[in-house]
Amino acid sequence: QGKRSEPASREERPGAQPEAKRARWRPVPANATKAKVQAAVEKWQNSTDREHKTMPDEVATVRPEVFSAWLRAGLCIPVDVRESHECAGAHMQSAEPLTYMQLLMEPERAVPQVARLRRDGRRLVVISQHARRMDNCGLVAAVLIDVFGFAEGGVHRLEGGYASWSQWLKHAPGAEPRAEAAEPQ
Predict the structure, then answer these.
(1) What are the boundaries of the region Disordered (predicted)?
(2) Which of 12, 82, 173, 176 has the most Cβ atoms closer than 10 angstroms to its Cβ?
(3) For the chain, where are the E strands, in sequence order?
Protein backbone atom coordinates (compact mmCIF):
# COMPACT_ATOMS: atom_id res chain seq x y z
CA GLN A 1 0.00 0.00 0.00
CA GLY A 2 1.47 3.41 -1.01
CA LYS A 3 1.67 6.35 1.33
CA ARG A 4 -1.09 8.31 -0.42
CA SER A 5 -4.61 7.76 0.80
CA GLU A 6 -6.27 10.44 -1.32
CA PRO A 7 -6.93 10.39 -5.07
CA ALA A 8 -4.09 11.42 -7.40
CA SER A 9 -5.90 14.66 -8.18
CA ARG A 10 -5.53 15.88 -4.56
CA GLU A 11 -2.71 18.23 -5.51
CA GLU A 12 -4.83 19.82 -8.21
CA ARG A 13 -7.46 21.16 -5.80
CA PRO A 14 -6.99 24.74 -4.66
CA GLY A 15 -5.68 24.89 -1.12
CA ALA A 16 -4.86 21.18 -1.03
CA GLN A 17 -2.40 20.39 1.73
CA PRO A 18 0.40 17.84 1.39
CA GLU A 19 0.14 14.72 3.47
CA ALA A 20 1.66 14.53 6.93
CA LYS A 21 5.43 14.63 6.86
CA ARG A 22 7.42 11.51 7.54
CA ALA A 23 10.99 11.38 8.75
CA ARG A 24 13.13 12.80 5.97
CA TRP A 25 16.60 12.06 4.73
CA ARG A 26 19.18 14.76 5.34
CA PRO A 27 19.32 16.76 2.08
CA VAL A 28 22.58 16.98 0.17
CA PRO A 29 23.94 20.54 0.43
CA ALA A 30 24.24 22.61 -2.76
CA ASN A 31 28.03 22.63 -2.42
CA ALA A 32 28.40 18.87 -1.91
CA THR A 33 31.27 17.15 -3.65
CA LYS A 34 30.74 14.76 -6.54
CA ALA A 35 31.59 11.85 -4.23
CA LYS A 36 29.05 12.93 -1.59
CA VAL A 37 26.26 13.34 -4.14
CA GLN A 38 27.04 9.98 -5.74
CA ALA A 39 27.13 8.34 -2.31
CA ALA A 40 23.80 9.91 -1.32
CA VAL A 41 22.08 8.85 -4.56
CA GLU A 42 23.53 5.33 -4.29
CA LYS A 43 22.45 5.12 -0.62
CA TRP A 44 18.93 6.15 -1.67
CA GLN A 45 18.96 3.69 -4.56
CA ASN A 46 20.08 0.80 -2.34
CA SER A 47 17.83 1.61 0.61
CA THR A 48 15.10 -0.88 1.41
CA ASP A 49 13.54 1.34 4.10
CA ARG A 50 10.14 1.93 2.48
CA GLU A 51 8.91 3.81 5.55
CA HIS A 52 11.36 6.66 5.02
CA LYS A 53 12.08 6.37 1.30
CA THR A 54 9.84 7.95 -1.31
CA MET A 55 9.07 5.24 -3.82
CA PRO A 56 8.96 6.46 -7.43
CA ASP A 57 5.34 5.43 -7.95
CA GLU A 58 4.30 7.35 -4.80
CA VAL A 59 5.16 10.74 -6.31
CA ALA A 60 1.96 12.66 -7.08
CA THR A 61 0.82 12.89 -10.68
CA VAL A 62 -0.69 15.77 -12.61
CA ARG A 63 -2.90 15.52 -15.72
CA PRO A 64 -1.77 17.19 -18.97
CA GLU A 65 -4.56 19.80 -18.87
CA VAL A 66 -3.62 20.84 -15.32
CA PHE A 67 0.07 20.90 -16.29
CA SER A 68 -0.85 23.18 -19.20
CA ALA A 69 -2.69 25.56 -16.87
CA TRP A 70 0.27 25.60 -14.47
CA LEU A 71 2.63 26.37 -17.39
CA ARG A 72 0.45 29.20 -18.69
CA ALA A 73 0.30 30.70 -15.20
CA GLY A 74 4.07 30.29 -14.67
CA LEU A 75 3.46 28.04 -11.65
CA CYS A 76 5.77 25.18 -12.59
CA ILE A 77 8.99 24.18 -14.28
CA PRO A 78 8.90 21.18 -16.61
CA VAL A 79 11.83 18.82 -16.02
CA ASP A 80 12.51 16.45 -18.93
CA VAL A 81 14.09 13.30 -17.49
CA ARG A 82 14.22 11.33 -20.74
CA GLU A 83 17.60 10.03 -21.81
CA SER A 84 18.77 11.28 -25.22
CA HIS A 85 17.85 8.00 -26.96
CA GLU A 86 14.25 8.36 -25.67
CA CYS A 87 13.78 11.86 -27.07
CA ALA A 88 14.33 10.94 -30.74
CA GLY A 89 14.72 14.64 -31.51
CA ALA A 90 11.45 15.65 -29.83
CA HIS A 91 12.35 17.88 -26.89
CA MET A 92 10.06 19.98 -24.76
CA GLN A 93 10.68 23.66 -25.23
CA SER A 94 11.43 25.43 -21.94
CA ALA A 95 12.01 22.14 -20.09
CA GLU A 96 15.02 21.62 -17.85
CA PRO A 97 16.80 18.41 -18.93
CA LEU A 98 17.82 16.33 -15.89
CA THR A 99 18.22 12.56 -16.09
CA TYR A 100 18.64 9.92 -13.42
CA MET A 101 21.98 8.88 -14.94
CA GLN A 102 23.12 12.51 -14.82
CA LEU A 103 22.29 12.64 -11.09
CA LEU A 104 24.17 9.41 -10.51
CA MET A 105 27.13 9.72 -12.88
CA GLU A 106 27.57 13.47 -13.47
CA PRO A 107 26.57 15.14 -10.21
CA GLU A 108 29.00 18.00 -10.83
CA ARG A 109 26.66 19.07 -13.67
CA ALA A 110 23.42 18.12 -11.96
CA VAL A 111 23.92 19.74 -8.53
CA PRO A 112 24.08 23.37 -9.76
CA GLN A 113 20.98 22.75 -11.87
CA VAL A 114 19.13 21.19 -8.92
CA ALA A 115 20.19 24.15 -6.75
CA ARG A 116 18.74 26.58 -9.34
CA LEU A 117 15.46 24.65 -9.39
CA ARG A 118 15.27 24.81 -5.58
CA ARG A 119 15.98 28.54 -5.48
CA ASP A 120 13.32 29.17 -8.12
CA GLY A 121 10.68 27.81 -5.74
CA ARG A 122 8.08 26.82 -8.33
CA ARG A 123 6.72 23.28 -8.37
CA LEU A 124 8.42 20.83 -10.69
CA VAL A 125 6.63 18.60 -13.18
CA VAL A 126 8.92 15.72 -14.05
CA ILE A 127 8.38 14.18 -17.48
CA SER A 128 9.51 10.82 -18.86
CA GLN A 129 8.41 9.24 -22.14
CA HIS A 130 5.38 7.29 -20.85
CA ALA A 131 5.41 7.75 -17.04
CA ARG A 132 5.02 4.05 -16.43
CA ARG A 133 5.23 2.67 -12.92
CA MET A 134 8.78 3.11 -11.55
CA ASP A 135 9.83 5.03 -14.70
CA ASN A 136 12.62 7.65 -14.79
CA CYS A 137 10.22 10.45 -13.86
CA GLY A 138 9.42 8.71 -10.59
CA LEU A 139 13.08 7.93 -9.92
CA VAL A 140 14.25 11.49 -10.50
CA ALA A 141 11.30 12.94 -8.56
CA ALA A 142 11.94 10.64 -5.58
CA VAL A 143 15.66 11.53 -5.59
CA LEU A 144 14.80 15.24 -5.71
CA ILE A 145 12.52 14.77 -2.68
CA ASP A 146 14.66 12.43 -0.58
CA VAL A 147 18.24 13.27 -1.54
CA PHE A 148 17.95 16.97 -2.39
CA GLY A 149 15.18 17.94 0.06
CA PHE A 150 12.42 19.16 -2.27
CA ALA A 151 8.96 19.24 -0.69
CA GLU A 152 6.79 16.23 -1.56
CA GLY A 153 3.99 18.52 -2.72
CA GLY A 154 6.38 20.48 -4.91
CA VAL A 155 7.36 17.66 -7.27
CA HIS A 156 4.89 15.93 -9.60
CA ARG A 157 5.04 13.35 -12.39
CA LEU A 158 3.22 14.15 -15.64
CA GLU A 159 0.49 11.53 -16.01
CA GLY A 160 1.13 9.55 -19.20
CA GLY A 161 4.46 11.31 -19.74
CA TYR A 162 5.63 13.07 -22.87
CA ALA A 163 3.58 10.74 -25.09
CA SER A 164 0.37 11.80 -23.32
CA TRP A 165 1.42 15.45 -23.34
CA SER A 166 2.12 15.53 -27.08
CA GLN A 167 -1.23 13.82 -27.80
CA TRP A 168 -3.04 16.26 -25.54
CA LEU A 169 -1.41 19.21 -27.34
CA LYS A 170 -2.75 17.99 -30.69
CA HIS A 171 -6.31 18.28 -29.39
CA ALA A 172 -5.98 21.23 -26.99
CA PRO A 173 -7.52 24.48 -28.18
CA GLY A 174 -4.99 27.32 -27.96
CA ALA A 175 -2.15 25.32 -26.44
CA GLU A 176 0.58 27.51 -24.98
CA PRO A 177 3.41 27.78 -27.56
CA ARG A 178 6.25 27.74 -25.01
CA ALA A 179 4.94 24.45 -23.66
CA GLU A 180 4.65 22.73 -27.02
CA ALA A 181 6.92 19.95 -28.05
CA ALA A 182 9.68 20.96 -30.38
CA GLU A 183 9.60 19.27 -33.74
CA PRO A 184 12.12 16.48 -34.30
CA GLN A 185 15.34 17.77 -35.87
Answers:
(1) 1-34
(2) 82
(3) 61-62, 76-80, 96-97, 123-127, 155-158
